[in-house]
Amino acid sequence: MTETEKPKRGRPRKGEMRPEKLQKCIGRPVLPDPNSSSPIEQLRAKRGLSQKELAALLLVTRPTVGKYERGEVYPKGLVLKALNEMLHKEGLPEIPLR
């Protein structure tokens, strides 16, 4: 990243590196590990949705989708039901009820 480019919003978690920077270091594209991402991230990747687009489908905000993916907040009610229906259609593991 050059000095004139603006960094993306949000910081990587401690000990993590942004994919763009890692790609520069190793010299090849970095593919997400399907075992390390949440079912919601896998759903978004399979359907080609951004957090904002998924948030619009679920009638929640984009930051809320990010919190679901990181496990900071647990989806409830109709949002959980809608997510599980989408996950089931894509053949991904559903989110268990709490």
Describe this structure in words.
The protein is mainly α and 98 residues long. The protein has a domain of 51 residues: lambda repressor-like DNA-binding domains (434 Repressor (Amino-terminal Domain)). The protein is built from five helices and no strands. α3 crosses α4. The longest helix is centred in the last third of the chain and has 13 residues. The protein is globular. The termini are far apart. The mean pLDDT is 79.
Q: What's the CATH class label of the domain at 39-89? A: Mainly Alpha
Shape type: globular
Number of helices: 5
Total count of strands: 0
Q: Measure the end-to-end span.
A: 42 Å
- CATH architecture annotation of the domain at 39-89: Orthogonal Bundle
Estimate the mean pLDDT confidence.
79
- Which structural category fits the helices and strands? mainly alpha
Determine the fraction of residues in helical runs and give it as a percent range. Answer: 40-55%
Report on the biggest sheet. Answer: none
Q: Beta-strand percentage? A: under 5%
N-to-C series of helices and strands: HHHHH
Radius of gyration (Å): 15 Å
What is the CATH third-level topology name of the domain at 39-89?
434 Repressor (Amino-terminal Domain)
Assigned CATH superfamily of the domain at 39-89 = lambda repressor-like DNA-binding domains
Give the low-pLDDT segments: none
